[in-house]
């Protein structure tokens, strides 16, 4: 089990919670080189999903470039596939684009701060939040 790959798998957005679970299970089975060879049935049992669902999500992960599958045979007998987790490419592209996402977060925070300031000014200048004098507890 590679804790590094598991942490990376948890931080990757794959667009589907079951697909993410399959990816995390592959990372859980992987060695430090990102290689693992669990059977579809093993993944299905561990994730509590159907075998065909596992196959569909692994195909989707391959299309996303997160997994590469190597088919293995021993003579006429099929062996479990060898899966290679390919997070390196994703990590590089995420690192390159991280500057833009940090700027976006800063702009959003500044925008929210401006809105809060404007609402606070309305409240102190007699806006909807100001409580007029009088009422049940006021002196006559």
From TrEMBL:
Residues in the signal sequence: none
InterPro entries xref list: WH-like_DNA-bd_sf, WH_DNA-bd_sf
Record-given protein name: Replication protein
Organism: Pantoea latae
């Amino acid at each position: 089990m590679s804790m590094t790959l598991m942490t990376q798998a948890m931080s990757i957005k794959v667009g589907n919670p079951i697909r993410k679970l399959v990816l995390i299970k592959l990372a859980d089975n992987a060695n430090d080189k990102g290689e693992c060879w669990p059977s579809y049935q093993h993944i299905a049992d561990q994730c509590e999903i159907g075998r065909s669902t596992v196959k569909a999500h692994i195909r989707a992960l391959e299309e996303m470039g997160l997994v590469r599958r190597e088919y293995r045979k021993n003579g006429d007998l099929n062996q479990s596939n060898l899966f290679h987790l390919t997070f390196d490419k994703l990590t590089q592209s995420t690192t390159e684009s991280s500057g833009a996402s940090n700027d976006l977060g800063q702009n959003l925070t500044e925008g929210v701060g401006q809105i809060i300031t404007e609402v606070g000014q309305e409240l102190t200048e007699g806006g909807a939040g100001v409580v007029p004098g009088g009422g049940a507890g006021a002196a006559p």
